[in-house]
Design goal:
This protein is mainly β and 173 residues long. It is 10% helix and 33% strand. The chain is built from two helices and 13 strands; from the N terminus they run βββββαββββββαββ.
Length: 173
Amino acid sequence: MEYFLLKLSPKVKNPIRLRAYYADTDSSIVTYESLKELSVAYIEDKGEVELTDILTSPVFMVSGQVKQLLQLFEPDIKFKAIQMFGFYHKEELKPLYYVPEFPEYPCLHKEVTVNPNGTVNKVVLDKSKMPEASVFRIQGLIENRIIVSLEAAESLLRRPFYGIGLEKAEVKE
């Protein structure tokens, strides 16, 4: 079976960037756990901003349409919402994104070296450790390396989503 890394397309030049984030947390790192069921964030909205269906920073987020599609493949994925407002143009730009809590699996190949900061230079998946899941996160990494099956990748590509990037993941025995 083939798998793909789900990420922001490199063609997107000016994705939404959070300017200020508000949650009931002392942590400066935004995670699913640090969010309330509905959080508020302000985005930098000077100049042209591209409203994409996927965002990867500061946390992995998807639009409502991508959320619905992901739930078709993995109904147990939980989501928390972030209502965004433009910092300068509060009434004009109000996108709503969802932060998923993907199932996590330890499926990295033994030849992959995890850096001390929890990142990897290259993703190589171990065929014998691959789960039955169609959408999941690689366990043990600080980065949001989201993996989708070929079927899920094709489904994403058949729809008019904007800003979705897919990179074939290497799978070894």
